[in-house]
Amino acid sequence: MDNYILAIETSCDETAAAIIKNGTEIISNVVSSQIDSHKRFGGVVPEIASRHHVEQMTIVLEEALKQANMEPNELTAVAVTEGPGLVGALLIGINAAKAFAFVHGLPLIGTHHIAGHIYANNLVQPMEFPLLALVVSGGHTELVLMREHGSFEVIGETRDDAAGEAYDKVARVLNMPYPGGPHIDRLAHEATEAVPFPRVWLEEDSYDFSFSGLKSAVINYKHNMDQRGEEIIAEHVAKGFQDSVVEVLTGKTVRAAREYQVKQVIAAGGVSANKGLRTALELAFKEEGIPFYVPPLKLCTDNAAMIGAAAYEMFEAGVRGNLDMNGRPGMELLSWK
Ligand code: KG4
Ligand code: ZN
User: Fold this and answer.
1) 271 in contact with ligand 1, CB cutoff 6 A
2) What CA–CA distance (Å, rounded) separates 230 from 211?
3) Atom of ligand 1 nearest to the CA of 178
4) Which ligand has the nearest atom to the CA of 138?
C-alpha cells in the first residue's frame, strides 16, 4: 500500500506543508514565506514569526491537501519539525500537527529540521551510503556522515557563527537587505576583483568551522576604509568573503569525503543555494570521481517536503511521536536507528 505523509514545517520564517508519497515523490509542496515582514528589522523577529505562522498555518495546510487533491483519510501519517528552531514558531506547527493527527486518528512523527534538509536529496535521487552531507543554513554548518538511513554522525560543526549567519551579517555591513546570502552571491559574481580575507582552517585534522573571524575581518576592513574616507567596492568585498567561505567549506568536505570513502556527497540547507559554493563543490567532486548532488533551490531553503522525506524513513523504522510532543529549540541530530 502506498504511504502518504502530510508534513509541516514552521521552525523559522516559512510556514510550510507538503504531502509526500513513499518518501520520494512530492504530491504537493506549499511554502508561505514571511521574509518581507522581517526585512525591515534586518533579521527574523521571533514574535512576528509566531504570529505569521498562526495566520498562515491553516491556509497552507488546506492548500497542501487541495493541491494534492486528497482527503485526510487517505493519509498514512502526519510529520512535523520538532526542532531545532524558534520555540514559539515550532509550537505552531507542532500544535497543528497534533490536532490534525488526533482528529483523523493518524500516527504523529517528530522530525529533526537538519535531517529534513539532508533528506531533501532523497526527493531528487536515491541516497547512497556511506554518504557525506554538508549542511549549511542560517543556523547550522555541519559535516554529517551517514552510514545508513537514519544514522547521523556529526564529524564537524561551526564553533561560532553558522555560514548563513555570516552571510547575513556581512550583507548588513554592505547595506543589503535580509536575507543577505543571495545578494552577496550576486555581488560576488559581478566582481572583477576580490578583497583578500583570511581562510580559517583551524587545526590541521579538524572538520570544524569558524566564521566569526572572517566576519570581523570584513567589518574591520569597512571601518578602516571609512576612517580613510575611502568608499568600499561592495562587489569586491562580497567576492573576497564568498571566496573564503567557499574555499574552506569545499576543502573540508573533500578531505572528509576521502577519509570516510563515501559513495555520495550532498549539500543541504539554505546556503547550498549559493552558486559559488555549488560550482566549487561540483568541480571538486568531479575531480575526485565522487557523485555530488544538491537539490533544486526550492528544496534547499526551508520547506515541508524535506520533512516528509525524512519522516518516511522514520515511519518505516517504526518511530512514532506522542501527543505530548513539545517544541525542542536545541534538539540534537540523533540517529533513529
Ligand atoms: O535553510 P534556511 O532556509 O533556513 C535555516 O534553516 O536557517 O537557510 C537560510 C540561510 C540564510 O542565512 C540565507 O542568507 C542563506 O540561507 N542563503 C544563502 C543563499 N540563499 C540563501 N546564502 C548564500 N548564498 C545564497 N544564494
Ligand atoms: Zn533550514
Assistant:
1) yes
2) 26
3) 14
4) 1
Torsion of CA 173, 179, 185, 187, to 10 degrees: -50
Q: C-alpha grid cell for residue 40?
A: 525591515
Q: What are phi and psi of 331, to 5 degrees?
A: -50, 130
Residues 6+ apart with CB under 8 A from 214: 166, 197, 198, 200, 241, 244, 245
Torsion of CA 12, 17, 21, 23, to 10 degrees: 10
152: left (phi over 0), alpha (psi -120 to 50) or beta: beta
Distance from residue 322's CA to the centre of ligand 1 (Å): 31
- Strands of the sheet containing 141-146, edge to edge, are 153-157, 141-146, 131-136, 264-268, 292-293
Q: Which residues surround ligand 2, an ion (CB under 5 A)?
A: 137, 302
pLDDT digits (tens, 9 = 90+) for 256-310: 999 999 999 999 999 999 999 999 999 999 999 999 999 999 999 999 999 999 9
Contacts of 172 (CB under 8 A, 6+ apart): 42, 178, 180
| Residue with grid cell 510556514, as numbered in its chain | 15
Length of the chain (residues): 337
Q: Cell 550576486 appears where?
A: 186
Distance in angstroms (rounded) separating the CA atoms of residues 41 and 227: 27
Please write the tens of the pLDDT for every residue from 202-219.
Answer: 999 999 999 999 999 999
164 lines ligand 1 (CB under 6 A): yes
Question: Which residues partner with 136 through β-bridges?
Answer: 141
Q: Is the CB of 85 under 6 A from ligand 1?
A: no
